Amino acid sequence: MTFPNTVPHDSPPSDDDAADNKPHPLHRRLKSFVKRAGRTTDGQARAFAELGPLFLIPYKPEPLDLAAAFGGRTGPTVLEIGFGMGEATAHIATVLPETNFLCCEVHEPGVGALLKRIGEQSITNIRICAHDAVDVLDHMLQPGSLAGVHVFFPDPWHKKRHNKRRLIQPEFVKKLAGHLQPGGYIHCATDWQPYAEQMLEVLSAESLLRNTAEGYAPKPGYRPLTKFENRGLKLGHGVWDLVFQRA
């Protein structure tokens, strides 16, 4: 199954030296994703067919009426960028039922998995745009329209020469901050300490934001521990949360 109106996927760079000679990704075009392999299961395909018309929002380069997109529901809107298989997203939506969650993900099995969870758990406050979040921010969402942004466990791009491909960069953070309401927040989480340090540096440098903690934040109660995260913690791996607020 393929999505209409989605942008072409980027491929992660190879390990050879040719990858280092590519232009900086922000010079080509800022994007919020990389391609990941995966297969859509029969259950996910059924979720696309049955629930897609209700919960998928097609990308259109025009302002989105958020209240209409959520069936007339008014309330704060949180943008989630890259929800993986949707486990944490579904949990957060159930513990914050008064909040609307607009979720961007281009990984088809992940979108299918979240649609399946929506049906199984009767979740009504999620909408999915299977498109690059940068385009959604630039063309569909108005400045000052978001109560929050969630970016959980983005690709850490471990190799130093690939760090420039990380999502949390000054230009992108400025874009996110500009879409927040006064008092709105950005919540990032990562299990890679060098990336956590970069996130802290970049978020701290954005003049529109202030840190809600002295350094890293305690894990907010709404964010669950995933199976992957629990396994890592048992092995002694760290997890770092950062919560910054629009001044």
Automatic annotation (TrEMBL):
S-adenosyl-L-methionine binds at E80, E105, D132, D155. It is an enzyme of class 2 (transferase). Residues 1-24 are annotated as: Disordered. Keywords: Methyltransferase, S-adenosyl-L-methionine, Transferase, tRNA processing. It comes from the Bacteria. Pathway: tRNA modification; N(7)-methylguanine-tRNA biosynthesis. Residues 161-166 are annotated as: Interaction with RNA. One of its GO terms (molecular function) is tRNA (guanine(46)-N7)-methyltransferase activity. Substrate binds at K159, D191, T226, K227, F228, E229. It catalyses: guanosine(46) in tRNA + S-adenosyl-L-methionine = N(7)-methylguanosine(46) in tRNA + S-adenosyl-L-homocysteine. GO terms for cellular component: tRNA methyltransferase complex. Its EC number is 2.1.1.33. SUPFAM superfamilies: S-adenosyl-L-methionine-dependent methyltransferases. Catalyzes the formation of N(7)-methylguanine at position 46 (m7G46) in tRNA. Belongs to the class I-like SAM-binding methyltransferase superfamily. TrmB family. HAMAP family: tRNA_methyltr_TrmB. This is tRNA (guanine-N(7)-)-methyltransferase. It comes from Variovorax paradoxus B4. The lineage of its organism: Bacteria, Pseudomonadati, Pseudomonadota, Betaproteobacteria, Burkholderiales.
